[in-house]
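Data availability (excerpt). The following record was deposited with the supplementary files.
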Amino acid sequence: MNGRRLIPTAALAGAVALAATALTACSGAAAADGGKDGKLGVMASFYPLQYLAEQIGRNHVKVDILTKPGVEPHDLEISPRQTARLGESDVVLYLKSLQPGVDKAVAQAGVRNTVDAATLTTLEKHGASGHDHHAFEGEEAGHEHGEAGADPHVWLDPNKYAQIAKGVGAALRKADPDHAADYRRNTDELVAKLTALDTEYRNGLANTATKTFITTHSAFGYLAERYGLDQEGISGVDPESEPSPARMKDIQAIARKDHVSTVFFETLASDKTAKTLASDTGLKTDVLDPLEGITASSQGADYFEVMRSNLKNLQKALGTK
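Predicted structure:
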């Protein structure tokens, strides 16, 4: 990760001081409520964790998000105001190594109920090529985002996302035991929906003309591995990394060899590289959304709608039989 995404030390210290001041200034009643109308205050670092909190917590929680719609999560820079709000949250949900600025702010905020989604499933290493993977268990998952560390995009595998959902449900039950039965029921319902989505993907991608897909951002390693596909990323796991001329030449050769018809790009990052490759090779372009955020240009209003759009786009590109 490049240095500009990290919070300057002075700014971080000021933000932590601001958070402490905000907490001290609250009256007892206000501190207990936190302006949340008696609901459990949950801060999620980015969309996939926000969605879990909303689906499992429903009317018992007030969910805020650090990464606003349209902002690429990898690029998030934390403001002092956001750090102060982190300190006032009852539960914080984040994924260590995805957003270094968030990692630092969470470490300083001292929230009692902090959930690192990376500890709720197994992370693996996925490079630009789909052939490279290695498992990291729980806390040992790579703390360096990129090809040298673990791939954080676990939510694109419905099975792994279900594991994280169970962990989030457990955290909400711990933080708010009065509504534990509701959280458990909502978690079970969500996991059932994710199991059904997994079946849709498994059946929908079982018989295709090719198993190889090309994407600008190597975010789909878990999805590819789950469903027997081969992801070939123009860039690495970091969407800002620039492909080398040699990598571009390799991708062109792979496209010819594996009869690839489409280069995928995403909604929150530039499509320049995909369009350049498509132009050079006569390929089509289409969207494969890594679901790091939902915007007006997303192909769906929530996680399930976008995942189903991704499935349709994959089926079309891979030549479903």
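Summary of structural features: Strands lie at 40-44, 61-65, 91-94, 113-116, 122-124, 135-137, 212-215, 230-233, 262-265, 284-287.
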